[in-house]
Amino acid sequence: MKSRHFAKCHVEEGIFKALMIGSFALLSASLGFILLTIIIKGLPALNLAMLIQTPRGGYYLGKEGGILNAILGSLYLAGGGTLLALLFSLPLALFLKVYTNHSHWSDMVRLALDVLWGIPSIVYGAFGFTIMLALNMRASLLAGIIVLALLELPIMARAVDEIIRMTPFDLEQASLALGATRLETAVHVVMRQMLPGIVTAILLAFGRGIGDAASVLFTAGYTDRIPTSLMRPAASLPLAVFFQLSTPFPEVQRRAYASALILTVIVLAISLGSRWISGRLSRYVVK
Amino acid sequence: MQVRRPATALGIRRRKDSAARSFFYFLAALPPILATAMLLALLYRSWPILESKPLWKLLADKIWLPNQGEFGFYPFIAGTLWVTVVAMILAVPPCLLTAIYLVEYASSRLRAFMKPLLDLLAAIPSVVYGVWGMLTIVPMVQAIGPKMGKLLGFIPLFSSKNPTGFSILAGSIVLAVMVAPFIIAVSYEVLHTVPSGYREASLAVGATKWQTVKYAVLPKTMTGIVAGVVLGASRALGETMAVLMVVGNVPKVPASIFDPAYPLPALIANNYGEMLSIPLYDAALMSAALILLVIVLVFNILSTLMLRRIARRAKE
């Protein structure tokens, strides 16, 4: 009787362990599956012209050209957005740590950041659009940058905040005890300590910004030219993928796969690069 | 009479510090202000349509004909819910099992390998997920749809009348993969908050590892896991591009997982171009964004507060 009970327990243990390993394998396999699909479909259509030319006449019917406009547009949009978001999120995260460590006030700000992080990018796009209407602005690089900055702000601020929380409180106290003001402590001690975290946060936010389509759809517009001014519309890679895929021509659709491959390579390079950089920088951190 | 302090080095440093402090307070007010501004701006833009009809009528009406001034949101709300619920049903069991495996069973080497894997999955842009879905998931659903329909067609949920693969099921599969890293990460954190004493006590009285998980760890973390799932669902609700590309976009109330649907984000993204040319159309689309925002805000605030309470309790 007793042994049968034991056997039952072990069978249950075995079943669930198998299920767990199965789920784990399923997830890893789906990442591989996604990457493989994009590479197999995208690689044959990829060529140098796609990377260094803008769309010529009849590009969307399958004629000559490339998507340099979208590649550069995306880099401008995500780069500008990240820079703008950094200007606000870095001081914000420093403030949360050094000035108000564990107060209701900082809890409230963190809650607001978490909530902002969860708001879908299409809502950011719609919000940006209402603001543009109110200001009588047209779709432009600047509007796209501002909306992306709003989208990236909570991501970056929370990522930096999580890292700063790891800084030993002793370090801060030592600095304050030596007579440094809070500002000096924040800038000279805490900031240096969290350099690897800041780099990771910047790259994370940049990756999110460059891959986001729904927010720039409303605000940055789309154009076949390389943007030359902040007031002109700008193309972006995710939208290039989307628009090329919606044409009925197989030739153009293949280019959409190639564009998706370019976008994936950029994003994965950023993700892997951020790991490597933060690993290198964390050598200079006081543990 | 006010005495002016001499501008000593210390005085300047103090003044800098207090200037920085007020700047910081301004910055910290920014996130709550931004969230409120979004709500108010969308409310303002969608006011014309909210004013024209009672709210329940807008939400429950099934007819969507912008040219004739008919704006019924019901098909879109139903589409959003269908896609999200099916995606969560597909995603939650494997994600939970993976998280349990990582916390309770896996070696630290495997855990170290999993982190970058999840980061990569989370980093892939939604449009790339959409391309993947169109290339692989849609044909797959198209192939299995009729077979499932024959086998299980007597249940309305599985009846298959849609010859293309662009369907709720395709959208849900893509969404399930997209939210997986997020749900795993949150449940991993929650499972970690259980003190190891709990596990040791259970193992010491002779429970197997799975029994320990089932009777000691899971009951203690249930609320946290539910909060994580709700957070994941609110991510899934707002996902635009990937879903839009595989879900079919037909404004009809779906009845089966093989039917096409038209979720709210897809509605906004697909029609923003013509919305200024038809009266009330822009207000209708902005109120679609408003509905999304309100649902996501409620979900997010509740689950974040719950998760925070759990984290605090774990610390004590």
Please outline the helices and strands.
The complex is a heterodimer of chains A (287) and B (316).
Chain A: H1 2-42, H2 48-52, H3 68-99, H4 104-118, H5 121-135, H6 141-164, H7 169-177, H8 182-193, H9 195-211, H10 214-219, H11 237-246, H12 250-281
Helix pairs in contact in A: 1-12, 3-6, 3-8, 3-9, 3-11, 4-6, 5-6, 6-9, 7-8, 9-12, 11-12
Chain B: H1 9-52, H2 55-60, E1 64-65, E2 70-71, H3 74-105, H4 108-123, H5 126-152, H6 168-192, H7 196-204, H8 209-238, H9 241-246, H10 264-271, H11 281-315
Antiparallel strand pairs in B: 1-2
Characterise this structure.
- The complex is a heterodimer of chains A (287) and B (316).
- Chain A is mainly alpha-helical and 287 residues long.
- Chain A has 2 domains: 2-45; 51-284, MetI-like (MetI-like fold, Orthogonal Bundle).
- In chain A, 76% of the residues lie in helices and 0% in strands.
- In chain A, helix 7 (169-177) runs antiparallel to helix 8 (182-193) and helix 11 runs antiparallel to helix 12 (250-281).
- The termini of chain A are far apart.
- With 316 residues, chain B is mainly α.
- Chain B has a single domain, classed as MetI-like (MetI-like fold, Orthogonal Bundle).
- Chain B has 11 helices and 2 strands; from the N terminus they run ααββααααααααα.
- Chain B has helices at 9-52, 55-60, 74-105, 108-123, 126-152, 168-192, 196-204, 209-238, 241-246, 264-271, 281-315; strands at 64-65, 70-71.
- In chain B, strands 1-2 form a two-stranded antiparallel sheet.
- In chain B, strand 1 and strand 2 form a beta hairpin.
- The mean pLDDT of chain B is 87.
- Chains A and B meet through helix 1, helix 3, helix 4, helix 5 and helix 6 of A and helix 1, helix 3, helix 4, helix 5 and helix 6 of B.
Low-confidence stretches of chain A: none
C-alpha termini separation of chain A: 55 Å
Q: Supply the helix-strand structural class of chain B.
A: mainly alpha
Number of strands of chain A: 0
Instruction: Determine the strand fraction of chain B and express it as a percent band.
Output: under 5%
Spatial separation of the terminal alpha carbons of chain B? 52 Å
Rg calculated over all Cα atoms of chain A: 24 Å
Strand order of the largest sheet of chain B: 1-2
- Please mark out the parts of chain B with pLDDT under 50 across 5 or more consecutive residues, or reply none: none
